[in-house]
Automatic annotation (TrEMBL):
Similarity annotation: Belongs to the 3-hydroxyacyl-CoA dehydrogenase family.
InterPro entries per UniProt: 3-OHacyl-CoA_DH_NAD-bd (IPR006176), 3HC_DH_C (IPR006108), 6-PGluconate_DH-like_C_sf (IPR008927), ClpP/crotonase-like_dom_sf (IPR029045), Enoyl-CoA_hydra/iso (IPR001753), NAD(P)-bd_dom_sf (IPR036291)
The organism of origin for this protein: Carboxydichorda subterranea
Domain 3-hydroxyacyl-CoA dehydrogenase NAD binding: 13-196
Organism superkingdom: Bacteria
Keyword Coiled coil attached: no
Name of the featured protein: 3-hydroxyacyl-CoA dehydrogenase/enoyl-CoA hydratase family protein
Catalysed reaction, written as an equation: a (3S)-3-hydroxyacyl-CoA + NAD(+) = a 3-oxoacyl-CoA + NADH + H(+)
PANTHER family hit by this protein: 3-HYDROXYACYL-COA DEHYDROGENASE FAMILY PROTEIN (PTHR48075), 3-HYDROXYACYL-COA DEHYDROGENASE-RELATED (PTHR48075:SF7)
Length: 788
């Protein structure tokens, strides 16, 4: 494999032109990652000529899910307008255009912008499908050499795909620099696309949606039935077909559809891309999807009585949603994830036949269009995985189901095979990927090396290198090289269980003798959702209190062992890091966190308090903010922490986690989630090479009974205002008791173990309460908290 090694672009300041939904969000993400950003839009009449850009910044703070990593990130965005403020572009390193999708408007903008852009700056268009080269026709050669398309997908904070589109004039070195910058500093997964209509993602995605529309009409399926078949059972996201369209917006869909139809030279593709009459009718009626409150789905009623209604695509009337059910789907969902599609296609009911009617044309289309739209099959696969959340890209599906078998099925139906497929069939082992995935077919029919990123430590590569040390039901220990081990947590549903704790204890026991350092991580979407609530509930209701207490004490000891380990322990987190997962973070000597890390002590949400040392360690960190050697009242800080824990506050990002105290300034935050394991290993090595010594236990000055009384008084005031329930008051009493060190005077020196004992006592008392057990049961059965 070849390795990517270009130096990334250096962006000290950026500018985004266009403060609409996409432009404002792109600016917001740049600002979230520490890059000051100019946000320009049209000038308006009146005293505030930059009102459009200012409103774009304001909307960022209202978006859900949050568009900003922290609310303070908005302060890095300076609103302006293109009539008065183009001079600001002189000192930026990157300009991104995100105005209306109109070629003439973009050409006119670039003519105005060119005189103001610094000679070194990269200039890019966020167009979703217009020609990149045509936008800068007539501009100077120097401008064209640093111009490219950067197509972010919506929402740009959360969807990792960015299509990078170079023209014949674009400097290849600039493209490599931008690709590395997108990956390292924005956490994106850039894919090189050719300058063709709608590029890769939208070209394939729109085709797939149109195929689904056509098949729905041919087979007479309902909206619910189509979404059932085109969802997870086919390796597609839960939003499937029509929920995805509602999220994208029906007007946006029509625009992209018409753009592709007007620019394709393929008559069959042009015929397929004819806008569906049902979508045109919906747009005329204002049924644009989620942003309009109604699309293929809508909610009716108010409050708890709200119900989901579905559009009948034939009558254009809404009706109650009906459950869709097919035997082939049931059988497929019972199969292992990698075999679901094969099982679905092997059935003989309408769902199975519909699935093939959707999949077959898409696979054939991708193989036919690969030379036109992309450089390799891997680029197409990455675009569909990272932009449309497909579990596997189309060429990965070709290989999994078998090129020979799929080609035979297509030919048996009278379908012609694309030239690349015919070429593969003439080879000894037809496949788009070979050599264990190290080579992939390009658009010219050659197998070329897949470029890899040095910082991406993949478990598959570790496995191939024989780096697996041992595996248990909830964890695997890997040898990362350089005498650094990595404990991969994979307990069921990312919950902490006894098997995981045992594996961690064993790994920690080998530090100093076998390993120089240890990394703790989870290769799944989440680090950990906390304790196994089901096991706790069973233990409580069966009266196994000794067993429950031993389990809690054991987890406390594990976290203390992490904190005081003789060699560096680095906890690497991404995704949900809740409850016990957050407690591991709090005790870790060092943390490497992906920006998209959602960390929080959430135990109060199920009627408990943090008892794996989380309450104790959060208190230690909070009290450390007080100036040493001076008399300061700890009550304001302790009260703030009390509210954070009592409200089960979860960070909206790793940067927000720093503000909450879950992460420290010395903990690393990286944007490229795939590089998490690499950076955690490097952090452990740096700590060990710097003659690492563990922290020394120190006494904790208890806030004391007076602070406890103030915290409880606040909870009672909230109860009188009907903001919390009687059981919430009981939780607050126990939490305040632990945080303040019990019934002791202020300043009483306490050991960590004393606070751990208080945690465990309060936890067990609350677990024994029927209302806490009701809350746990409700979360387990519904996934939602209960306020009783």
């Amino acid at each position: 494999m070849s390795t990517l090694s270009a130096r990334p672009l250096r962006v000290r300041k950026a500018a985004v032109i266009g403060a609409g939904v996409m432009g404002a969000q792109i600016a917001g993400w740049l600002a979230s990652l520490g890059i000051p950003c100019e946000l320009l839009d049209l000038a308006v009449e009146g005293p505030d000529r930059s009102r459009l850009a200012r409103e774009g910044v304001r909307r960022l703070g209202q978006m859900r899910p949050p568009a900003l990593a922290t609310a303070s990130a908005a302060q890095r965005i300076r609103p302006g307008n293109v009539d008065d403020d183009l001079g600001r572009l002189r000192d930026v390193d990157l300009v991104i255009e995100a105005i209306v999708e109109d070629l003439g408007a973009k050409q006119a903008l670039w003519a105005r912008v060119e005189p103001y852009v610094a000679p070194h700056a990269v200039v890019a268009s966020n167009t979703s499908g217009l020609s990149v080269a045509e936008q800068v026709a007539g501009r100077s050669e120097g401008f064209r050499r640093r111009f490219m398309g950067l197509h972010f997908f919506n929402p740009p904070r959360y969807l990792p795909l960015v299509e990078v589109i170079a023209t014949a004039d674009t400097d290849p070195e600039r493209v490599e620099q931008v690709v590395e910058w997108l990956r390292r500093f924005l956490g994106k997964r850039p894919v090189l696309a050719k300058d063709t209509p709608n590029f890769i993602g939208n070209r394939v995605g729109i085709f797939a949606l149109q195929v689904a529309f056509r098949a729905m009409q041919e087979w007479g399926l309902s909206v619910e039935e189509v979404d059932l078949v085109t969802g997870p059972v086919m390796g597609r996201p839960k939003s499937a077909t029509f929920r995805t369209l509602d999220l994208v917006g029906l007007d946006t869909y029509l625009h992209v559809l018409r753009t592709g139809r007007s620019r394709t030279d393929d008559p069959d593709e042009r015929a397929l891309l004819q806008p569906p009459p049902v979508v045109e009718a919906m747009v005329r009626r204002g049924l644009l999807g989620e942003k309009a409150g109604a699309g293929f789905y809508r909610r009716s009623g108010k409050g708890d009585g709200r119900a989901i209604e579905v559009l009948d695509w034939e009558s254009l009337e809404y009706r109650p949603r009906r459950e869709a059910r097919f035997d082939s789907v049931d059988r497929a969902m019972a199969a292992p994830p990698g075999e679901r599609l094969r099982v679905l296609l092997s059935g003989d009911d309408p769902a199975s036949r519909f699935a093939w009617a959707v999949l077959g044309p898409v696979l054939r289309f991708c193989a036919a269009k690969l030379p036109e739209i992309a450089y390799t099959a891997a680029d197409v696969d990455a675009a569909m995985r990272d932009g449309f959340s497909w579990e596997q890209g189309p060429f990965e599906v070709w290989d999994r189901l078998g090129v020979v078998q799929l080609a035979g099925r297509l030919e048996s139906e009278g379908k012609s095979l694309p030239p690349l497929v015919k070429q593969l069939l003439a080879s000894p082992a037809p496949a788009f990927y070979r050599s264990g995935g190290r080579e992939v077919l390009d658009g010219q029919g050659r197998h070329v090396e897949v470029k890899r990123v040095r910082e991406h430590l993949r478990l598959a590569a570790l496995e191939a290198a024989g780096a697996r040390v041992r595996t248990g039901p909830s964890a695997t220990l890997w040898d990362l090289g350089d005498d650094v081990a990595a404990l991969e947590m994979h307990p069921p549903k990312a919950a902490i269980d006894d098997a995981l704790i045992e594996a961690a204890e064993q790994a920690l026991s080998e530090l100093g003798s076998r390993w120089r350092g240890l990394v703790v991580f989870n290769d799944g979407p989440d680090f950990s959702v906390g304790a196994n609530l089901f096991a706790l509930l069973v233990g409580a209701r069966s009266g196994q209190w000794d067993q429950v207490e031993r389990a809690v004490a054991r987890f406390q000891r594990l976290n203390m062992a992490i904190k005081y380990a003789p060699s560096p322990v680095v906890v690497a987190v991404a995704g949900r890091t809740l409850g016990g997962g957050a407690e591991m973070v709090l005790h870790a000597p060092a943390v490497v966190a992906a920006v998209e890390s959602y960390i929080g002590l959430v135990e109060t949400g199920v009627g408990l308090i943090p008892a794996g040392g989380g309450t104790k360690e959060a208190l230690v960190r909070t009290l450390a903010r007080l100036p040493e050697g001076k008399a300061f009242d700890p009550q304001p800080l302790v009260a703030w922490l009390f509210e954070v824990i009592a409200q089960a506050t979860v960070s909206t990002s790793a940067y927000h986690a720093r503000e909450l105290g879950w992460l420290r300034a010395c903990d690393d935050v990286i944007a490229d989630r795939a590089a998490l394991l690499f950076h955690a290993k490097q952090r452990a090595l740096r700590m060990e090479e710097a003659a690492y010594t563990p922290a020394v236990p120190a006494p904790i000055a208890a806030p004391g009974r007076d602070v406890r009384a103030a915290l409880v008084a606040g909870a009672l005031d909230a109860r009188r205002a009907n903001r919390i329930s009687d059981h919430d008051v009981q939780i607050a009493r126990r939490l305040a008791h632990v945080m303040c060190g019990g019934d002791v005077p202020a300043g009483t020196p306490l050991t960590e173990q004393a606070l751990l004992d208080l945690e465990r006592e309060a936890f067990l008392w609350l677990l024994g309460q029927e209302k806490t057990q009701q809350r746990i049961e409700h979360v387990l059965t519904t996934g939602r908290p209960l306020r009783n």
